[in-house]
Automatic annotation (TrEMBL):
Bilayer topology term: Multi-pass membrane protein
InterPro entries xrefs: OMPP1/FadL/TodX (IPR005017)
Localization in the cell: Cell outer membrane
GO molecular function: long-chain fatty acid transporting porin activity
Main location class: membrane
Protein name, as recorded: Outer membrane protein transport protein (OMPP1/FadL/TodX)
The UniProt record lists the keyword Oxidoreductase: no
Signal peptide: 1-20
Keyword terms: Cell outer membrane, Membrane, Signal, Transmembrane, Transmembrane beta strand
Amino acid sequence: MKLKYWTFLIVFFFNSLAFAQNPDNALGYYFDALRYTNTQFGGSARFQGIAGANTALGGDPTAALTNPAGLGFIRRAEMIVSTSINLTNANTSFINNSTPDSRTNLSINQLGVVWGTDRGSDADLRGTAFAITFTRNNDLNRQWSYSGLNDRNNIISSFLAGSGGSVTWNEFDDEVRNGIFTLSGMAYATRLILPDLNDPTNAQNQYVTFVPIRPTEQREKITETGAQNQWNLSYAINYKDMLYIGAGIGIPTIRYNRTKEYTEIPQANSPLNGLRLRERLSQSGIGINASLGVIFRPVDYIRLGASIITPTIYSVNDNYDADLSVSYNNYTIIEIVNGVEVPVTLRDLNARTILLQSQYNMRTPLRINGGVAIFLGKQGFISGDVELVDYSGVRFSNPQPVFNMESDNAVIKLIYRSTVNIRLGSEFRFGTFRIRGGYAMYGSALKEDIPAPEGQMTFITGGLGKRTDKFYLDGAISYRTSQSSYRPYLLRGAEPTAITDNTRLTATFTLGFFF
């Protein structure tokens, strides 16, 4: 399959953001770079309640994900399970119209077992801990939609702009005969675009349409499901209750599905009654990383923590297909068949792509965490974290079938930047009961926040808990806000853009047992 056909296809089905024009030869994988690097704090309700500010805290199986040194505070064996309920709301503005949508999902947020030991206060090495944990750190479930009346252009305008001068008539004819693999190929097969027989250059790569620009209702519903999860195998030691050192291996996984249904209906007299484009994308992957962390406790009421999580190397598989249905108003055109003009009356036409599959490697960047926790005697603590993530460090490589991903890597360096994530949390203790609260701000991944600060998120969290010698039970609420942008098609900067205000309310419940 020729590279330019891959370019046509992926330029369209990866157009989920609107902050940059798609440069020559870039296939759109730089959108995945943001999706799979922009992970959030996950794990137990305790750490959810303090907005994930746990780098210097420890004492919870969730430490295996961010700073394995924190496992060194665990002195006996325990088992933990957490579940979450997510309510995601999206309010999308598109051509002076606002459309609300929502989605609710239930998930297992964490599973874990830790085997901790206590060797007594007389030993230099006073404890060790080994943990096997499963943590969800990026919930990708979302549903959103938009609609509006566009009188300036339509998706056919995009097909014309993307095909003219790039694909010859014979190449489109071959694609239709042998298996369609581009959106433009489906437009050609359903007569939305036609060869320009009056092109004076006779290059046989220019196209026209008989569908005029009319006020057109444009609407789309996008449903996304899936998550990033990570298994961790971690080990930590406790040296004199002063220095805690931990290391671990992480095995992250990706599961993501997206369905899109886009519709155009002309509102004035037109040969076209309407069209419907449906696209289906699924991605799955598995990777590996490593983590190293330390917590230093110079005095009882202060803990200082730091951790490094190496770049994650993923192997990712893509599957994509699409179909296009077009309804005409019994419109008659003249086609050239074997050199003879033949009238053809158009009614309902349909086209479908073949299933497109690819496999490639993705490397997400290094993550560096630093934190401090101040303990208020036995009354609780206040903690704070700073995390550094360089989104421009994502790289793609080794695609199969072979195609060039270097343009996407260049775009990543061009539009993404390093950002700082800040997390603050507190816990107050009343006997066996706990009250928690937190706030987090994740910085935008973009060098220029146009038209929206992609990747920027704010969190407000709170929680309650009860801890005894035999078990602990915690609950937490997290409220997240963010903004994202989207364009239904590309038209050299003239395409419409949808801006979505996203909110997510998450309730997490954790049950842990000591054994």
